[in-house]
Amino acid sequence: MKQIRVIAESKNKLVLDEAAEKGDWIDLAQINSVDTGLVEKALAAGADKVYQEKLKAAKSEFELQSQKEKSALLSKAEKDRGEDLKKIAELNAKISSFENEKKLAVAEALSKKDSEISELKQKLAAGESQTQLQLQKIQSEKNLEIQKIQNQLENAASKAKISEDNLKQNFESQLKLKDEQIAYYKDLKAKMSTKMIGESLEVHCKTQFEQYLRPVMPNAYFEKDNEVSRTSGSKGDFIFRDKADGVEYISIMFEMKNEADETATKHTNESFFKELDKDRREKKCEYAVLVSLLEKESELYNGGIVDVSHRFQKMYVIRPQFFIPLITLLCNAAKNSLEWQRQLEVAKNQSIDITNFESRLSEFKSGFDKNYRLASEKFATAIDEIDKTIDHLNKIKAALIGSENNLRLANNKAEDLTIKSLTRGNPTMTEKFAALKSQGAKTIPSAKGSASADESASDGQGGLF
């Protein structure tokens, strides 16, 4: 059993849309489609009379209802129109009263405005008169200030004219003085030898230093270099040194070179670099400066301070007019590193102290070792000598002991010696002694006493040994 789809061809006819069997069913609420063509044909042909009648009844009912509503609307409109007319009359009355109030208010405002205008006109007239007075006062003050400024300008112009004339005169006098100096120096250079020209440049630099730098550097050293180098046999012209708190922070070796215009052989600045650098190193200066008037046409050397450190370390070439500026520049640059130099000097002194201590300790060790070695050698020599002396004394002792034995034997023999024993077996000596005995009885005792003394002496020597 299943649901079958149908099509409504008319209100009285349903057509199956698919094959059906017994037991299949149709859901009228879900009819698939309606054949509207047939319905339209039936309506057009007037087949549906019920519909036409209902349509006619609905139309008449609609017209009746419309007529009633129209009558109600017309009566309501008439009623609303009366009310509107009444409202319009009330509004007209209000408008007329408002117009009257407006006219009164306008008249009152106009009168008030006229009074304000008249008051403002009076104030304006008073303000204009006051403004005019103020303008006149400002104009008079302005004229006075303008006159004062004009006077000041005239005074300033006159002063400027006077100052300009004075400057012009001073410039002309200075120019004249410079021309005279140039002429003087040209004449001087023509008269001077090459050595005198160089010495005049040295005097100029010395004068410049004493005049400009000595007041600000009273303790600075700037003197001639009089010590001739042992290796090269040369010397610089001037040496500049300065200290701060006992620490030398700058030192400069100066060489001044000049020559006469008429000199046949012209020198170059570069020909003096090597010798100047050698002098700087031997005199232990930090910088080397060549103050030169050589190569007068050179744009390089005429341009200012020339750094030639790429050729020789810390070397500069200047014209005489840059002598003072270069010293001040180098001093200021060196003073910036003064603290580092102080610390370096302290470290150097500490290093020197340590080195001195170590060298002294080394000297003490070497001296102590030498003295100990010498003392040991002397002690060993003394011990050897003592041993030799002991051996020698032992030999002397043995010899003395042997001598003592011999002396003892000799003493014993001496004690046993008598005249009788000496003359025994010797008739001559017996006879001699008998003759002597008879001649002097005293001689024999003396001889006996002498012999006894000799024997005593011999005994004493034997006792000594």
Shape: elongated
Radius of gyration: 79 Å
End-to-end Cα distance, whole Å, is 181 Å
Helical proportion?
55-70%
Biggest β-sheet strands, sense, barrel: 6 strands, mixed
Report the count of strand segments.
Answer: 9
Count, helices: 10
List SSEs in N-to-C order.
EEEHHHEEEHEHEEHHHHH
Mean pLDDT: 77
Query: What is the beta-strand fraction?
Result: 5-15%
Query: What would you call the structural class?
Result: alpha/beta
Low-confidence stretches: 190-198, 447-465
The neighbouring-strand order within the major sheet is 4-5-6-7-9-8
Task: Write a structural description.
With 465 residues, the chain is α/β, with parallel strands linked by helices. The protein is built from 10 helices and 9 strands. Strands 4-5-6-7-9-8 form a 6-stranded mixed sheet, sandwiched between helices. A 3-stranded mixed sheet has the order 2-1-3. A hairpin with a 7-residue loop joins strand 8 (306-307) and strand 9. Helix 7 packs antiparallel against helix 10. The longest helix is centred in the N-terminal third of the chain and has 143 residues, at 49-191. It is elongated. The model is unreliable at 190-198 and 447-465 (pLDDT under 50).
